[in-house]
Amino acid sequence: MQFDRLRLSGFKSFVDPTELVIRDGLTGVVGPNGCGKSNLLEALRWVMGESRPTAMRGEGMEDVIFAGTTRRPAKGQAEVTLALDNRARRAPVGFNDTDALEVTRRITREAGSAYRINGREVRARDVQMLFADASTGAQSPALVRQGQISELINARPKARRRVLEDAAGIGGLYQRRHEAELRLNGAEQNLSRVDDRLEQLA
Ligand code: ATP
């Protein structure tokens, strides 16, 4: 899916509402040290459902909210919206009837994160699956952070295979298999409990 625009408000150093247009092809972010280049990449990962604060260089997820400066007070919430071109209709069923998609994540202090797709409230999993199926998840190699190239060169073959699998768009299938296995284990445990009860009654 093509990314069209990224909107940030209260996210890390982007305290004021900011909108960036993302054009076709490779996008690079350049600027002086500390101007917020990595924060932009983190905003992209975050709106795609990143759940690890450490991947956002924080201790807790609320660390992504603008923390204030000597001149400006801290914010109470952060919001990031990613606008996507869905003319190729690659969005999952239920979200696939419009040419454009807007995925929004908002975090409010003490209240955690909430996600919306085209204004409709959804679960984190729905957003994570949407991007995993489109080969652009929060951990996608399409977003190249500092140090990632050398990590990749030194990676073990299994880790490299994971990169290829993500690029092929099958990351979502692994997640679904994992969830199916958990449900299967739950069902097996329930069945064995039923067997125990039946034995007690016999
Ligand atoms: P470099 O080129 O050195 O890697 P960069 O352009 O990637 O830098 P970032 O690391 O994205 O810059 O941004 C760092 C800036 O973001 C710092 O000034 C830091 O104070 C600010 N920052 C990070 N988190 C927050 C936050 N929660 N609230 C306010 N400012 C923040």
UniProtKB/TrEMBL annotation:
Coiled-coil ranges from the UniProt annotation: 177-202
Cellular compartment(s): Cytoplasm
Residues that bind ATP: P32, N33, G34, C35, G36, K37, S38, N39
Signal peptide: none
Known role: Required for chromosome condensation and partitioning.
Family designation: Belongs to the SMC family.
Domain notes: Contains large globular domains required for ATP hydrolysis at each terminus and a third globular domain forming a flexible hinge near the middle of the molecule. These domains are separated by coiled-coil structures.
Subunit structure: Homodimer.
Name of the protein this chain belongs to: Chromosome partition protein Smc
Residues of the full protein shown: 1 to 202 of 1149
